[in-house]
Every structure is written in C-alpha cells, then in structure tokens.
Amino acid sequence: MFPNNYTSVLSWIFLLSAFIVFYNYVGYAAIVFLLNSLKKTPPTTPARPDELPTVSFIVAAYNEEDCLKEKIANSLQQNYPPGRIEFIFITDGSTDSSAAIVSSHPRIIGLHEAPRRGKSAALNRAVTHATNDILIFSDANTALNPDAVLNIARHYLLPSTGGVAGEKKVLTAHGSPDEVGAGEGLYWKYESFLKKLDSDFYSVVGAAGELFSVRRNLYEALPQDIILDDFVLSLKVAGKGYPIRYEPDAYAMELPSFSLKDEGKRKVRIAAGGFQAISLLTPLLAFWKHPRLSFLFISHRVLRWALSPFCLILAALSNAALCFGTDILLFKVLFACQIAFYLPGLSAAASPAIRKKNKLARFSYYFLFMNVSVIKGFIRYLGGRQSATWEKARRATGSLPPQ
After folding, report:
1. How many C-beta neighbours within 10 Å does residue 380 have?
2. Exposure winner among 94, 125, 153, 211, fewest CB in 10 A?
3. CA 148, CA 152: separation in Å to the nearest integer?
4. Whose CA is closest to 92, among 113, 108, 110?
5. What does pTM read for this prediction?
C-alpha cells in the first residue's frame, strides 16, 4: 500500500487529468448549451436578390484533374444571382491537366503558376484577384449543395458577421474500409454539434477548409508556412471582433480517406498544424480582451490538442497505481470503467473484423486513434518536420452525389 502522501499526490493527478478530459469533451459543451438556452435567437428573414452581397468563390487545386470537372460543374450550379458571383480556380504548382481543365471554362477565372508554394500562398494570390465583398473558399474534392453559397451569403446582411463556416459531411464510399467513413463521420457529427453551440454562444472557433468564408476586407494574408490556413484565418477574423457563424444548410460532401493509414497521415498533419496554430494565436488567450472567444478557444481547441491526449495517459497510469496501491473502492471502479472502454478499442486495433462488427469497439478505437495522432503531431511539430506542402492523403474510390 502507498503512504498517504503518495496516495494524495496520485489522487490529485488522476482527478485533475480526468476533469480536463471530461470538461473538454462534455463539460464545456454542457455549460455552453445551458447558457445558450437562456438566450432568445431573433428570427431571420429571407434576403431579396438585390440585397445579397457580391461573392468571390475560390478553389485552390493542386493536381486535382480527377475531380476538377465535377467540381467546376457543381460550382456553376450554385443557386445564386450570376451577376453577383465570380469563380476563381487557382492551380499553382500542378503538373497534371488541372490548369487546362480550368482554362476551358469561360465562366471560371483560372490562375496558374509553375512553382508550388503551398495552399496559403495560392489563397493569398487568388484573393488579390478577387473583386467582390465576400470570399468563399472550398476544396476541390468536395461537392456542395445547390443553396450553399446563398445560405452562407445571407449571414453577411448582419454587419457584425466576420465569416461563415459551412458543414462538412463525410460520405460512405466503395473502396473505403467501414471503420474510416464511420469513424470520421461520427467525429464530424460531434464537431458539428459543437460548432452550432459555439456559434450560438459567440463564434465558431476554427472553420474547416472544405467550405468557409470571410469578408474580403478582413482577410489577412497568411504566411506560406501555415499548415491549417482555414483555422488560422477564421480565428484571426474572430479575434478582430467579428464572429464566425455556423451554417449547417451550406455543406460540403467528401469521400473518406482510402485507408486508416491515409487517415492517420492526415490526422497527424492536422495535429501538427494545431500546435502551430496555438502558437500563432496566443493573443486569443487574453480573456480580458475577448472573454467569450477566449473561453471557446481554450475549451474547444487548446485543451483538445495541448492537454487532453496527455491527460488521458496520466489518468490511466495514475488510476492504475491507485487501483493496485490503495484499498479505495472508487479508484478500483473507475479503473475498471477505463479498462471496459479501452479494451474494445485495443481489440479493434488488432482485428479489422472487430472494427466492422462492433460499434463500441469502433468508437473506442477511433477515439484512441485520434488522440495518438495528436501526440504524433506534437512530436512532429517539436521536430519542425511538417511542411505546409505535403503529399495528399488518398481518398476512397467512388464519385460524389450529383447536386
């Protein structure tokens, strides 16, 4: 049995670690939900066509010849007044037929230079050619619903709106193992729920690059070494006092990663970018300047990347020590609960068949998979080994649904 002082120290380590994890994934959302329920949301009225802002729709595509024709067709089908929208596709660095595909469409403004400088540099260059008030960014490998631009643009009738984040939907496709699409899809449903809470409270804390927008006069040119350009750009806008709204009826659909290995590469890169973003966005930690945004940024993002994965390890190790080193029943019960959650995930890691058949095992496995990816991303960030340009993760075979 441990001496009392050892037990006390281990108890505090376990309780603090468990609290941080619980607060990050459940607690903060419950607090925001309760605060939102005390507010009344004013009804929105449809905008007349002549009231809608002018839009520059921007797509950065690097070697996307396999999906560019479909993306262009999908973009041109947007239900938006033709005289109030322009389409800019930039294919800098592409060595396939992407530039030729774009140049064959008269309604598309095509930009192409041979050097590959990364997505941030491409976006900066595209914005210099944009002439309209609102910038909408979308990835080349996604399909949008026909009213996506319209549903985003109507938010800008409020002068206080700095940007709008769309919804991301991960589809199930032939050629993708069930655990990839199911796990990623479940994660994004959870993230979408949090985005709605954050937006209703004050602002989305980080938009996804599949579909987001900002006011052109608030766009801040990004350094070329930025990994998560969408996340940093949207939060810099919010940090200027212009909240980012969430619009679930503007959604981008994409196929899941080809395999868990490909999804892992993507997750590690995002995690490395997350640590880079935190270092760049330290002004948002100043509660006295923007208390609501700081609260959301720390609760939703900083804890998720910087503390929760490591607290999971501390909670498991300290709980194990307390379980076998003391006679306190509570610690034994809590350790049994941890085993009951992690064991199916570890079994699923060893057996794809278990991942396919058992939902609890799949959920546990994907939870572990995400947090291990964050730790790997942290190591990569510390080593400075994540470039802004990178090899694209493969996507599942198949086609996106026509819109």
Report:
1. 17
2. 125
3. 6
4. 113
5. 0.89
